[in-house]
Amino acid sequence: MATRFDPFQEMDRVLGQMLAADRASAGMPMDLYRDGDHYVLHVDLPGADPGTIDVAVEDRTLTIRANRSGRTEHDVQWLAKERPAGTYARQLTVGRGLALDRISATYADGVLTLTIPVAEEAKPRRIEVQHGSAATSIEAAPAGTAG
């Protein structure tokens, strides 16, 4: 069976993957997972000034901002200057069922960690089912009559 191969399309696909990876790594790459009754979000912020890290929640939008200052050496000849500086921001829309008023945040070794608890009303709960003679029955009154 013959397959059609377009080298330009393949090159475009590979280049697109590389650029997408660069955009993710240049911003704020993150990991998110659920651990029991809370979610954990790890955001890489290497070199961020700890005092500039801001985490805010408004309605269902979680916003993370941080600033990394650029090096300001005077009278030097830069040979390479690839580390980005400036303000970084990332917004996530979060679903219902989270206790957004109880988010905790820590910053260590260039990683911001947010712990987001699941709201009590969203946690799974067991409902007891009665059976046999212990079950109570309720009969509906015929229409037009009062109980």
From TrEMBL:
Residues 21-132 form the SHSP domain. SUPFAM superfamilies: HSP20-like chaperones (SSF49764). Signal peptide: none annotated. Gene3D superfamilies: 2.60.40.790. Belongs to the small heat shock protein (HSP20) family. This is HSP20 family protein. It comes from Cellulomonas oligotrophica.
